[in-house]
Design brief:
This is Glycine C-acetyltransferase. By secondary structure, the protein is of the alpha/beta class. About 45% of the residues lie in helices and about 15% in strands. It has 2 domains: about 130 residues, Alpha-Beta Complex (Aspartate Aminotransferase, domain 1); about 240 residues, Aspartate Aminotransferase, domain 2, CATH 3.40.640. It binds 4'-deoxy-4'-aminopyridoxal-5'-phosphate (PMP).
Length: about 400
């Protein structure tokens, strides 16, 4: 029997979310998450996935995953530190270290638990973390879990960061201080000001942590935001995910050997949660191999992304400060944004609306994620739909 307290908690809160239009209904995809997706039995142009390079449906990765199932089975069988570390996990970590140009890498089951794990393995209640106000939820949760003092700085505001770093360090109240930022911000597609962040970190001798979930495979010819700025060896933690450009699942930190050794003995999901499956590890290694061998997919991603961005701008849409494939089309009003996305869907384009509380009130947007796998025809069709609905709703 459900307790009355739980029952009323659930009913009250779900009804409240529904009344405020914030209850997120999930649309299941029938089949693969490629440039086209099937929903409700109908094929749509997919501008909603993080499958930047189209690798989630790549035949080479599929073959590699199938072979790994045959040779290693479907599950790792244990946590990494008991007997769940397979040769395939080590190969993945070595390949990622080569890709990132760091001494070593530790991998986790997801990007989300990687942030939870790595931040809390190093920072504690005697420390302070300077965190960009737009950082991802997994960073926020990782910071909270560490029990360090969290000091938010205004988004990409380097004067604010410098002042807060100075005050925090000079207070003498903390053992360690860290600056943590997304490399690419997931709602606006803007890039963190890493050269200034590294300069501030060096000036005040603080730790640097970059979550490059949306930069890896995208910036720096694929190697990520740190490489994009030529700052290799200047950032302590290069965190990444295997679920976006790499097309599979998992997360990792690339860094110096001693840091990775520490994470292997102190990060709890590594110690207490079963390792990713052999198929996932092998497919991820194959993806990284492909990115080391050639920049073709990365070039295609940028070509498509520039094409869509220019098309939207020419039509008169506001794409904000986007500098990467993440292309918001800022509508503003929440209801108008939802209506826009719904009409796009009816016209065959699947691009999700993102509204408060994920973005500030009045900054509702439809977020477009072009990938290397889209064809020019698909992007043209999407732009036609944008033009039609933009005019219909009086937005352009
Ligand atoms: N960091 C950022 C910036 C992200 O956007 C995401 C994914 N939404 C994550 C971390 C978590 O990665 P994953 O989906 O692999 O758990």
């Amino acid at each position: 029997m459900t307790s009355k307290a739980l029952q009323s908690f659930l009913t009250d809160n779900i009804n409240d979310l529904k009344e405020r239009g914030l209850y997120n209904e999930i649309d299941p995809i029938e089949g693969a998450n490629g440039p086209l997706v099937k929903l409700d039995g109908k094929t749509k142009i997919n501008l909603s996935s993080n499958n930047y390079l189209g690798l989630a449906t790549d035949d080479r990765l599929k073959e590699t995953a199938k072979a790994a199932v045959d040779s290693h089975g479907v599950g790792a069988g244990a946590v990494r530190t008991i007997n769940g570390t397979m040769d395939l996990h080590l190969e993945l970590e070595e390949k990622l270290a080569e890709f990132k140009g760091t001494d070593a890498v530790i991998s986790y089951q997801s990007g989300f638990n990687c942030n939870m794990a790595a931040i809390s393995a190093v920072m504690d209640k005697n420390d302070a973390i300077l965190s960009d106000e737009l950082n991802h939820a997994s960073i926020i949760d990782g910071c909270r879990l560490s029990r360090a003092k969290i000091i938010r700085y205004n988004h990409s505001d380097m004067d604010d960061l410098r002042a807060k770093a100075k005050e925090t360090v000079e207070s003498g109240d903390y053992n360690k201080v860290m600056i943590i930022t997304d490399g690419v911000f997931s709602m606006d597609g803007d890039i963190a000001k890493l050269p200034e962040i590294v300069e501030i970190a060096e000036e005040f001798d603080v730790i640097t942590y970059v979550d490059d979930a949306h930069g890896s495979g995208v910036l720096g010819k694929g190697a990520g935001t740190v490489k994009h700025f030529g700052l290799q060896n200047k950032v302590d933690f290069q965190m990444g995910t295997l679920s976006k450009a790499i097309g599979v699942i998992g997360g990792y930190v690339a860094g110096k050997t001693e840091l990775i050794d520490w994470l292997k003995v102190r990060s709890r999901p590594f110690l207490f949660s079963t390792a990713v499956s052999p198929a996932d590890a092998a497919a991820s290694t194959k993806a990284v191999d492909l990115l080391i061998e050639s920049t073709d997919l990365n070039d295609k991603l940028w070509k498509n992304s520039n094409y869509l961005k220019n098309g939207l701008k020419k039509l008169g849409f506001d794409i904000g400060n986007s500098e990467t494939p993440i292309t918001p089309c800022i509508i503003g009003d929440e209801k108008a944004t939802q209506k826009f996305s719904k009409r796009l869907y009816e016209e065959g384009v699947y691009a999700k609306s993102i509204v408060f509380p994920t973005v500030p009130r009045g900054k509702g947007r439809v977020r477009n994620m072009p990938t290397a796998a889209h064809t020019k025809d698909m992007l043209d069709d999407a732009l036609d739909a944008y033009e039609k609905i933009g005019k219909e709703l009086g937005l352009i």
